[in-house]
Amino acid sequence: MNKEGFVIFHIEGGIGKNIMATAVAKAIKKKYKDRKLIIVTAWEEVWVNNPYIDRIYKFGGLNYFYEDIVKDKDTIILMHDPYHTTNHIYGREHLIKTWCDLFDVEYNNEEIELFFTPREIDYVKNMVLKGITKPIFMIQPNGGMQDLPYSWARDIPFGIAQEIVNHYADSYHILQIKRENQILLNKANALTVPLREAFICLLFSQKRLFIDSFAQHASAALGLPSTVCWIVNKPDVFGYKIHENVVSNIEEKYKTTKYSYLSPYNITGAINEYPYDTRNLFNVNTILDSLSIEKESFIKYDF
Question: What is the pTM of this model?
């Protein structure tokens, strides 16, 4: 009797990394089309209804995993981390390609995707966003993984983010994606809903301003062009052509690299490594000009 065949795709990291992994999963499934693709992750919300996978396991919920998936089975295990590769450390290519190469899987520009049912979308439209009469502007000025409320290495400086919100507050309903310990911008409304509902809220937004965190990945997965601000990380590695990518070009003045290991700066933004002599890392008018452009969306949902 033939053994049952599986491929385990083990993903360490946050929400955005999992969204990038949806493209890798497509490439894996093409190579191993006769095997069941098993996802092991902390963020099962990203993978719900994904047609390219067969089962999702969440860290902490792996009871009997070995006996069910590994023992006496024909199983391939893919759990190497692309962050630890030379190509990624030197920023030579997009992370998705690095990830596929790491698994010896051919990459043919597979795109990231998220999947929702019509009932999920109806619920967000009629319950979560009920009563909102203005067009929606969604903003994520701060990242989600670091413990500190602000990271200079990737967050939009508070004053700049507030100036953008002030510009649009009269004509738009501002929804800010944030953690509890992060500052709520004046005239903004905190978006405090489960993750999948936050994804769906993006579908109903007219303008979007993000940093390199999960919202920019989710917007790309949903075909929603957005403006994304970059400081330390690079759009060629973590970003998407669908977005308007605004890269800070402030010249570095200080060179504190004592605590740097395999990257020039820690993404948490240690304040003693701040390399600039100004806090104005972006030109506000450049961001406003990007947001003023009417961008065609490529969403697949009819709502």
Answer: 0.95
